[in-house]
Amino acid sequence: MKKQRVAIIGTVGLPAKYGGFETLTEHLVSQLSDRYDFTVYCSQKKYDVAERLTEYKGAKLEYINLEANGVQSIFYDTISILKALKNHDVLLILGVAGAWILPWVKWFTSKKIIISIDGIEWKRDKWSFAARLYLWWAEKIAVKYSHVDISDNESIQDYTAIRYKTLSKVIEYGADHTMSITPTAEDCQKYPFLLSDYAVKVCRIEPENNVEMVLEAFKNYGQLRLVMVGNWNNSAYGRELKGKYASVKNIELFDPIYNQREIDLIRGNATIYVHGHSAGGTNPSLVEAMYLGLPIMAFQVSYNKTTTENQALYFTDSSSLQTLLHQSTASTLARVSKAMKTISSLRYTWSLVAEKYSRLFQVSEEKELKTTTQNPFESIDADFLERLELGHLKNTYRFYEKR
């Protein structure tokens, strides 16, 4: 039987060495290449000549000579979509940057469009007003002209249902690629903080991740070390924060760490994981920390509460985070740790995620997958119903009420 041909568009590429969409793509091709003929579009800018493979774990790789992020992502995704139209049945598009072209794809081709809108990207503070306006519009186009849209969190699903009157499909991220690492003597020599209690936070250094809020809380609290890993040198914001807090005695700042064992060593042996994200959906770093069984202190927004099933500890500002650090007992942290591990083991595994995507690939060829959230009777004229003179529609009494 001929394999269904699926193009994966919108990632930096494979092998994964960047972020959540790349990790998702790696696990999809790892688990599903025996069933689907995958092509992954990659940024030539991010891979040296020696790194540019033509095939990876059963998937074909094609390169676009543009950046996959920032303003160039619009052209990067657009070119990827146009190339994919020739030989693929399904376009799995991760992110909305190239959404402007989707109406033409849907009107003039038979290709099936599955799109993940990647949280509510237009709300992120890092974007200029013009970029936010484009992303706001692109999100609308992506939802309207895709055959199915994916939310990675029920709170994102609620948002799209309210704004667009359609019900997206919820597919989270997996986390069971993370590893519990027992530190060696060499590890402890490289990272002396492994020998004591410490908190950890891993994130992109962006305002909506409340980086300064967390740094300020630990600076003022002073009784627990904070280890924070992020791309400090990628922006003026990051460089300013690094200069301001690098000398604080209980704070250690590290540049991005992409080696899986090393990042899991640092995360998995922490006492607490602090998650400051205020935008997005199911964040990969959060579910990975949950799978490692870390007690979570998360910024109080619906996405984080949904991901942790309201069983983590939550803060709203620097002061409330300090209060959590001061008041959380060993038994409280143990309870949260157990809950996080249980939730992640049930919800955030790559085998489950891969099967959900596989099901979408299959049924997308059979039918339109958009489901309206609008009550069909809302569009029926009241006078029309009255003229029908249907007794059961006219009678508003309940069976137990007196006539």
Textual characterization of the structure:
By secondary structure, the protein is of the alpha/beta class. It has two domains: 4-174 and 351-372, Rossmann fold (3-Layer(aba) Sandwich); 185-348, 3-Layer(aba) Sandwich (Rossmann fold). 41% of the residues lie in helices and 17% in strands. It has 16 helices and 16 strands. It has helices at 20-32, 72-84, 102-108, 129-145, 154-164, 185-190, 211-221, 236-245, 260-268, 284-291, 302-307, 318-327, 330-347, 350-364, 382-388, 391-394; strands spanning 4-9, 36-43, 55-56, 59-64, 90-94, 112-116, 148-151, 166-167, 169-170, 198-202, 225-229, 251-254, 272-275, 296-299, 313-315, 371-372. It has an eight-stranded mixed β-sheet, sandwiched between helices. Strands 12-11-10-13-14-15 form a six-stranded parallel β-sheet, sandwiched between helices. Strands 8-16 form a two-stranded antiparallel sheet. Helix 11 links the parallel strand 14 and strand 15 (313-315). The model is unreliable at 388-403 (pLDDT under 50).
Q: Which strand-content bin applies to the residues?
A: 15-25%
What percentage of residues falls in helices of 4 or more residues?
40-55%
Question: Which parts are unreliable, with pLDDT below 50 for 5 consecutive residues or more?
Answer: 388-403
Main β-sheet, spatial strand arrangement: 3-4-2-1-5-6-7-9
Our count of helices gives: 16
